């Protein structure tokens, strides 16, 4: 099963420094001497003590601001008007004071027998905003019958003292706790212990591990990795003879071909732990963190030996050094240097295999690929027909299939699909069947999913009649030229339904997995590519912008024929380097031409001649098959989608099929 989804099993654990270290034999923590009790951490006790002190200060100061018995504000106002208040202290919204005589008349029922000389009450508003109360207090104070002490503040004195004391105590407590920990930040403790620790996920041995039986296809890749499995199962078998197994294996292949799954299956086949990390997870904004994470990862892996370290997308950290804007001191290059150093530091007795995956091996640093590091390269390519059939069977195990579903036909029709695309094919078909409330997934659901993957989702916009007619004859031109040119791949489907960025499409069904392409076959492809443009010229006497993609594809093929494949008599069997894509900043952005201006002019002229020849041939052939062209276009206008069987009814047998049918009829006679 070439499945790149890589769902994490439930047994994954983060691999940190010391994560694989077993407990000591005497039952204590690692690092303690035999018979010695592990030292308890007093940090929680200290933190609890600080919190208790702060709580005690809060209660002391907050309660000290209130004096005597709390009385209602209305009762206080009556006593103030009766000149029975001796002194008043106003602090924010809290008023405290002392009676001249303890009141006995008009006392609230709840305060009878509880009144004392001192009292306090909560004001309706702050002192500065209550003009009525302020005027009365100031009048009695001027008359000498009241001692007034008023402060404008929003909190009590106790709260102020608590704020002043709590902040320094909290800061001191924080630094005290940090200093109690390990002073070395790179050993897993300290303030950055969790930051510099390797984020690799560790997959332990489980009862149902992923093995090669779960990987459909990829037969050659599994054979290349079988030696790694044997080494991990029995390292002494190799080391006793002085053999050194490759420490690094590089899986190279397009996205979605199952490189991650293959690495996990290798670990499951050998029955060893599996550490998985992405190359981008090493990189951080602080220089040196990535190198520290590499050291932590390899240290943990050595403790869990034998095991496998899997680094996905290693090109994120392993690109050519000196190609970035940071020189030799940026974070990525420091991390790469540490990886190289760790791989060189393996001992003979350490059975740790590093497997890396990438789809851009051309940008990797040469130091990574030298012998002793990633010196074994395994190509994980798109699966062949048998592999695709196996992948479809694996993904459709839990999908109820109708009787008309033919997985072998689907495997034949999905040439060039990766494992991820095949998984998406099955899933999209199941989703369509579920939306239509079917009990089983039918073949038409798979056809729908195939169109969705190849051509995109159908657009809802309405197409006017003129544009629809133009698209019909354009696609009919492609289909007719592909149908009547002997040796071309058979036409699988023609559609004028607007999908994605296209108004229509003509799909061919390749008959060979790896076809041998000669000049005549390439010329037939160019003629077919020009068929849509030629049909527009014949029927409508004009060209449209819809042929821009066809022209770009044909120009690319023609230029390769002339400049790279030696298929031009004037240019000869010489390869001329045109340009090269450089995916990282700092490297040479444009390579100088390796040929003269005169040679460039000859190449351009030859490309033009080839395309003009293909275009004229397409026009001549379509004029000869004008009746079939119009019939196919009218059928497209009526049905919009035409399968190969319907196309055969309209266009008749293909040239090669006609000869085969005549030969079989003669033999039968």
UniProtKB/TrEMBL annotation:
Record-linked SUPFAM superfamilies: FtsH protease domain-like, P-loop containing nucleoside triphosphate hydrolases
E.C. number(s) listed in UniProt: 3.4.24.-
Listed cofactors: Zn(2+)
Enzyme class (EC, first level): hydrolase
InterPro entries: AAA+_ATPase, AAA_lid_3, ATPase_AAA_core, ATPase_AAA_CS, FtsH, P-loop_NTPase, Pept_M41_FtsH_extracell, Peptidase_M41
Role, per record: Acts as a processive, ATP-dependent zinc metallopeptidase for both cytoplasmic and membrane proteins. Plays a role in the quality control of integral membrane proteins.
Protein name stated in the entry: ATP-dependent zinc metalloprotease FtsH
Gene: ftsH_3
């Amino acid at each position: 099963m070439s499945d790149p989804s890589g769902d994490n099993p439930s047994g994954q654990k983060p691999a940190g420094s010391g994560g694989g270290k077993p407990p000591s034999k005497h039952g204590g923590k690692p690092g303690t001497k035999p018979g010695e009790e592990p030292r308890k951490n007093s940090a929680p006790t200290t933190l609890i003590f600080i919190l208790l002190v702060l709580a005690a200060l809060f209660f002391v100061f907050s309660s000290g601001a209130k004096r005597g018995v709390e009385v209602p504000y209305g009762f206080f106002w009556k006593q103030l008007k009766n000149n029975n208040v001796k002194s008043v202290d106003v602090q924010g919204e809290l008023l405290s004071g002392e009676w001249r005589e303890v009141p006995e008349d008009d006392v609230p029922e709840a305060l009878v027998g509880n009144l004392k000389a001192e009292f306090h009450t909560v004001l309706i508003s702050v002192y500065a905003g209550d003009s009525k109360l302020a005027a009365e207090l100031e009048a009695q104070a001027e008359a000498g019958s009241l001692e007034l002490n008023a402060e404008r503040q929003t909190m009590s004195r106790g709260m102020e003292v608590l704020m002043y004391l709590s902040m320094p105590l909290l800061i001191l407590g924080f630094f005290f706790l940090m200093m109690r920990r390990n002073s070395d930040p790179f050993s897993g403790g300290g303030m950055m212990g969790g930051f510099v620790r390797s984020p690799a996920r560790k997959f332990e041995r489980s009862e149902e591990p992923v093995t090669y039986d779960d990987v459909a296809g990829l037969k050659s890749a599994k054979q290349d990795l079988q030696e790694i499995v044997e080494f991990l199962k029995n390292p002494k078998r190799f080391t006793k003879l002085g053999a050194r197994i490759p420490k690094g294996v590089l899986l190279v292949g397009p996205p979605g071909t199952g490189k991650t799954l293959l690495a996990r299956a290798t670990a499951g086949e050998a029955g060893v732990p599996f550490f998985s990390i992405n190359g981008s997870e090493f990189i951080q904004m602080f220089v040196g963190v990535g190198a520290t994470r590499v050291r932590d990862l390899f240290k943990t892996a050595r403790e869990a030996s034998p095991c496998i370290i899997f680094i996905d997308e290693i090109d994120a950290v392993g690109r050519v050094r000196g190609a970035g804007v940071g020189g030799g001191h940026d974070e990525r290059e420091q991390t790469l240097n540490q990886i190289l150093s760790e791989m060189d530091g393996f001992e003979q007795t350490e059975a740790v295999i590093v497997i890396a995956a990438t789809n851009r091996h051309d940008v990797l640093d040469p130091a990574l690929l030298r012998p002793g590091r990633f010196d074994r390269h395994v190509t994980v390519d798109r699966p062949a027909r048998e592999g695709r059939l196996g992948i479809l069977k694996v993904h459709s195990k839990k999908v109820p299939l109708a009787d008309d579903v033919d997985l072998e036909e689907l495997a034949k029709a999905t040439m060039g699909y990766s494992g991820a695309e095949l998984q998406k094919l099955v899933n999209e078909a199941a989703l369509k069947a579920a939306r239509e409330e079917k009990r089983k997934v039918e073949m038409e659901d798979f056809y729908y999913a195939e169109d969705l993957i190849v051509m995109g989702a159908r657009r809802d916009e309405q197409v006017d009649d003129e544009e629809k007619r133009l698209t019909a004859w354009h696609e009919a031109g492609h289909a007719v030229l592909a149908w009547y040119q002997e040796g071309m791949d058979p036409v699988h489907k023609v559609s004028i339904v607007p999908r994605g960025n296209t108004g229509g499409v003509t799909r061919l069904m390749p008959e060979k997995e790896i076809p041998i392409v000669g000049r005549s076959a390439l010329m037939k492809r160019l003629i077919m590519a020009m068929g849509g443009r030629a049909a527009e010229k014949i029927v409508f006497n004009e060209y449209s912008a819809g042929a821009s993609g066809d022209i770009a594809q044909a120009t690319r093929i023609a230029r390769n024929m002339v400049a790279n494949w030696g298929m031009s008599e004037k240019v000869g069997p010489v390869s001329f380097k045109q340009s090269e894509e450089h995916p990282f900043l700092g490297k040479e952005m444009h390579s100088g031409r390796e040929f003269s201006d005169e040679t460039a002019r000859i190449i351009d002229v030859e490309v033009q001649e080839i395309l003009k020849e293909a275009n004229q041939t397409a026009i001549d052939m379509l004029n000869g098959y004008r009746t079939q062209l119009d019939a196919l276009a009218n059928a497209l206008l009526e049905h919009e989608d035409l399968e190969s069987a319907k196309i055969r009814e309209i266009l008749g047998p293909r040239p090669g099929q006609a000869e085969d049918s005549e030969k079989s009829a003669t033999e039968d006679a």
